[in-house]
């Protein structure tokens, strides 16, 4: 109950916070203006001066541009918390750290050790905090404050108990309408999540949790946390974030910038493989087979098959003389070339050189003994230019692209018999497909494995030069900083990296994406239960230090080659250096939805985790049975349109119709037919909704989606407010 006095006190509290927030934004503006002025100054100087001067200026310009981008990205909800400590200290927590012109701290970065208490303190374990205050801002205006008192007596003693407020920052955040883009949770990170976010960088951390427990959110916040605490290391090597689909990446793409980080590479597995256009689909059986680790040997054998020895010695005429391409010479030259350990396409040059030398020797032996070095060079050139010899050398060591290697492997039975000899005939028959067949998801790790063994094709663009600055370059960058001053915005490492040639002036993200052999400082994998053992090999290659954050839910697995039990996948990859944490509270789904989803998952024997919902909502689940398939889509579309139009009249929100794969087209038609102006309804197959969320999810014909139980579990757990089930067939066990 509020009386007038407490209302007035609350208003004063709000006003006081508004002053603080105004000062913070003023400082943000100053810092941004200063960076803008410096950038303008550099640009005014134009492209004059020595190449070295220009290079320095370019490097500074990019760094100021990055800094301005970072400052722009933290504008929304710059400050969201305040901590009152028992020693009388008070500080504000926000997206980035800010200090005043005299370096006195104004705002503490949420990732700094001092801010941890904001997330970790509890009444039982206050850690020196007497009150934690959440600030809600809209634009630059403070619209609400909410106090979380951890030590009432101390608070009273300190005279801070006037104007306390409490609305439930978490519940307010959870109740917000969905926009189709993920928001950050930096203001309301919960203790079990905070422990994951701040776990050490080394080794692999697996985070298992049911739907909506914040795995994606936590993974992104952890990436931002690690980049802040291990800036030097991770700025140079970058952080790789792997998501399940482009749509998912769009959904999360502004979370990291809003947390003050712009340096991560977000992509899908397919995005890591240059040549892959994935349009094909294949059966679960084939996908499972292609995901097996033994496929690495199959690809290796296929590459080895390109190093052939002719059936018999071959004679070739050069300028009226005969040389013999001997099987024994070919074998020896191949062994030597292989011993160098270079990829197939690169090693071809060593093989060819060796063979040309052997054939030149044969010519020398046939000619007079007084021939000198110059004559030898000429003879060598004759051998190299001989067309029949070139053809023979190519046949013995054929350069090949990863895509061509796989096309041949899967379309030529004799090749499969040779390369996949450890598989049985039925398995090899499964792998066989026409040479013109498009690539599939399961081909991606195989293409990458092939690229690793083959290397670049002759004539490929050279790789990006090493990004690591040498000590000398670092020293130079430090001296440049000493002379010109970097205002703390620029580190010597990043300046040195940027001053290396034009190629390396690109951001780490750009350089990493251009270079297939780039190794990252840390890799974050979302929906990690979907990855096959071959896909894991692909990621491990990209992070030899094996520093991984792996988030997923084995109960949601859809891929036949995915993980159903973490130790089975992780032990072979990480040995003792992985650990698992569990998240157990769902911040997305209301309690009634969680109950329905868990009942289904248990009946379908999915390996579900413990799951409690953070919120109870009335009327969160509704089921509509219809007569016959014809009525199915029209009913689903009508139910969806009704919700969409109600929401369009209110605060807005997202409605999705989630259907079995075979019904996507008819669902789109039905939704278009019953569309209401200004009220959008999305149509997705269950698989497409992985990782996404909507205010209302209309799940159509669960029995058909449940052909893959993990898919239905995903579909049922997408809504933040209401689950509508529309069905003609009998409901699957657990839902009935
Ligand atoms: N501490 C929190 N405060 C506010 N919102 C949160 C918190 N944790 C999670 N959420 C919200 O809960 C929703 C679900 O989070 P997220 O998508 O990260 O879950 P998930 O575990 O990855 O789910 P799924 O397994 O279904 O992909 C998101 O809207 C997220 O912003």
Automatic annotation (TrEMBL):
InterPro entries: (+)RNA_virus_helicase_core_dom (IPR027351), DNA_helicase_UvrD/REP (IPR000212), P-loop_NTPase (IPR027417), UvrD-like_ATP-bd (IPR014016). ATP binds at residues 209-216. It comes from the Bacteria. Residues 188-590 form the UvrD-like helicase ATP-binding domain. Keywords: ATP-binding, Helicase, Hydrolase, Nucleotide-binding. PROSITE patterns: UVRD_HELICASE_ATP_BIND (PS51198). This is AAA family ATPase. The lineage of its organism: Bacteria, Bacillati, Actinomycetota, Actinomycetes, Micrococcales.
């Amino acid at each position: 109950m509020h009386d007038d006095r407490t209302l007035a006190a609350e208003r004063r509290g709000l006003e006081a916070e508004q002053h603080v927030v105004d000062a913070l934004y003023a400082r943000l503006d100053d810092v941004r203006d200063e960076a803008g002025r410096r950038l303008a100054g550099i640009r005014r100087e134009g492209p004059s001066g020595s190449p070295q001067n220009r290079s320095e200026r370019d490097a500074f310009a990019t760094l100021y541009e990055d800094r301005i981008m970072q400052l722009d990205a933290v504008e929304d909800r710059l400050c969201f918390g305040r901590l009152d400590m028992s020693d009388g200290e008070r500080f504000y927590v926000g997206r980035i750290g800010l200090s005043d012109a005299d370096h006195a701290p104004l705002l503490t970065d949420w990732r700094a050790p001092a801010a941890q208490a904001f997330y970790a303190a509890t009444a039982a374990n206050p850690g020196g905090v007497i009150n934690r205050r959440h600030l809600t801002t809209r634009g630059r205006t403070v619209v609400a404050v909410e106090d979380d008192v951890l030590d009432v007596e101390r608070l009273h003693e300190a005279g801070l108990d006037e104007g306390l407020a409490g609305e439930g920052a978490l519940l307010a955040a959870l109740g917000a309408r969905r926009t189709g883009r993920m928001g950050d949770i930096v203001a309301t990170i919960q203790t079990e999540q905070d422990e994951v976010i701040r776990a050490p960088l080394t080794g692999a951390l697996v985070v298992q949790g049911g739907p909506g427990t914040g795995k994606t959110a936590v993974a992104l916040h952890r990436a931002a946390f690690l980049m802040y605490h291990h800036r030097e290391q991770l700025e140079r090597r970058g952080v790789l974030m792997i998501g399940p689909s482009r749509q998912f990446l769009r959904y999360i793409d502004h979370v990291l910038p809003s947390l003050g980080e712009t340096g991560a590479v977000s992509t899908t597995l397919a995005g890591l493989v240059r040549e892959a256009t994935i349009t094909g689909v294949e059966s679960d059986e084939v996908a499972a087979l292609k995901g097996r680790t033994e496929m690495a040997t199959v690809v290796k054998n296929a590459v080895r098959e390109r190093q052939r020895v002719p059936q018999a010695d071959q004679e070739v005429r050069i300028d009226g003389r005969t040389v013999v391409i001997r099987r024994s010479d070919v074998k020896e030259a191949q062994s030597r070339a292989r011993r160098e350990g270079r990829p197939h396409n690169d090693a071809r040059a060593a093989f060819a050189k060796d063979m040309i030398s052997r054939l030149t020797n044969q010519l020398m032996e046939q000619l007079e003994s007084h021939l000198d070095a110059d004559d030898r060079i000429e003879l060598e050139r004759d051998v190299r230019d001989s067309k029949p010899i070139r053809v023979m050398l190519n046949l013995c060591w054929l350069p090949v692209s990863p895509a061509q290697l796989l096309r041949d492997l899967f379309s030529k039975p004799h090749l499969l018999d040779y390369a996949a000899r450890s598989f049985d005939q039925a398995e090899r028959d499964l792998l066989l497909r026409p040479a013109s067949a498009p690539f599939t998801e399961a081909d991606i790790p195989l293409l990458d494995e092939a690229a690793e063994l083959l290397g670049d094709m002759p004539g490929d663009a050279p790789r990006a030069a090493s990004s690591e600055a040498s000590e000398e370059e670092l020293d130079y960058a430090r001296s440049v900083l000493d002379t010109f001053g970097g205002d703390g915005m620029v580190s010597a490492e990043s300046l040195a990296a940027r001053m290396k040639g034009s190629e390396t002036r690109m951001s780490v993200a750009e350089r990493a994406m251009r270079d297939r052999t780039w190794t990252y400082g840390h890799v974050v994998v979302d929906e990690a239960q979907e990855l096959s053992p071959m896909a894991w090999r692909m990621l491990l290659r990209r992070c030899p230090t094996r520093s991984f954050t792996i988030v997923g839910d084995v109960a949601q697995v859809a891929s036949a080659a995915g993980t159903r039990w973490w130790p089975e996948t992780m032990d072979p990859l990480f040995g003792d250096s992985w650990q698992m944490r569990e998240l157990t509270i769902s911040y997305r789904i209301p309690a009634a939805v969680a109950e329905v989803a868990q009942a289904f998952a248990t009946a379908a024997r999915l390996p579900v985790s413990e799951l409690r919902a953070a919120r109870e909502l009335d009327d969160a689940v509704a089921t509509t049975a219809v007569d016959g398939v014809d009525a199915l889509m029209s009913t689903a579309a009508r139910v969806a349109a009704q919700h969409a139009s109600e929401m369009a009249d209110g605060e807005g929100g997202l409605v999705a119709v989630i259907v079995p794969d075979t019904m996507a087209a008819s669902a789109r038609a039905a939704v278009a037919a019953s569309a209401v102006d200004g009220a959008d309804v999305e149509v997705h197959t269950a698989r497409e909704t992985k990782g996404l969320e909507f205010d209302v999810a209309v799940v159509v014909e669960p029995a058909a989606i449940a052909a893959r139980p993990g898919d239905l579990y995903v579909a049922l757990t997408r809504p933040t407010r209401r689950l509508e089930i529309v069905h003609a067939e009998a409901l699957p066990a657990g839902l009935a």
